[in-house]
């Protein structure tokens, strides 16, 4: 059974809010050594929204060189401005990234026609694998299954999507609408605990931030599916259900993920970009209890 677990890695910063290259290299090594199937650089979990173009290009260069094709590297290049999205997408392609993932502009609620025009413009301008990023809670609108199908029909370089929705009905509609005509189109869920549901419905797996904390849970789950090991499939579902409790408190949840990574022994600073705040004492206790329940740290 085809399935993948891809990590949208966090971005590590030093105490002066500068990108910490060595700390990021430790993160990339951690998830790769944990058996993950790919890395998303500068996704939502990577705080792409707070990085300027110079920082983004620096991070791409360092990631391509350090990851060195050990796993596929997909770069988040979505911007509020179409020109910036195209510029960064070309830069990622020219410097060795395997693909890009693009969230459409946010703030204004765009029509499906406007979104089609947006992605048409980008897909025509670049020569690299493109993954569409549907995140209605953050953009304010939906990339419909019908829109994605139209885009795939016109552009062979649009190869998949990440569907970050709470209601799996939408992801299932994507699978039912697109895969009969384009069976190789990759459809990923954006919430880690939806992995089994996604794969059993015919999708490609998950692009999920919790594997920053426990890549071995994601990779173990993939292995269990490939071996049709129902006992282990159930075990990893329960593990991820425990970790998914991190979604229930703290907004956004990126600072919680970084704190959990530190608790697991990954050497990064407890720093996010302004105005994201560090977890409270109460949050830290809840994070600790979740990691203990998941047998990822000891009491």
* CA-CA gap between termini: 37 Å
Class based on secondary structure composition and strand pairing? alpha/beta
Question: What is the count of helical runs?
Answer: 12
- Net shape: globular
Q: Class in CATH? A: Alpha Beta
User: How many distinct domains?
Assistant: 1
Computed CA radius of gyration, to the nearest angstrom: 18 Å
Task: Give a short account of the largest sheet.
Answer: 8 strands, parallel, barrel
Spatial order of the strands forming the largest sheet: 1-2-3-4-5-6-7-8
Provide the CATH topology.
Answer: TIM Barrel
Structure report:
The structure is a single chain. With 299 residues, this protein is an alpha/beta fold. The chain has one domain: TIM Barrel. It has 12 helices and 8 strands. An 8-stranded parallel beta barrel has the order 1-2-3-4-5-6-7-8, surrounded by 6 helices. Strand 6, helix 7 and strand 7 form a beta-alpha-beta unit. The longest helix is centred in the first third of the chain and has 15 residues.
Summarize the structure.
The chain is of the alpha/beta class and 299 residues long. The protein contains 12 helices and 8 strands.
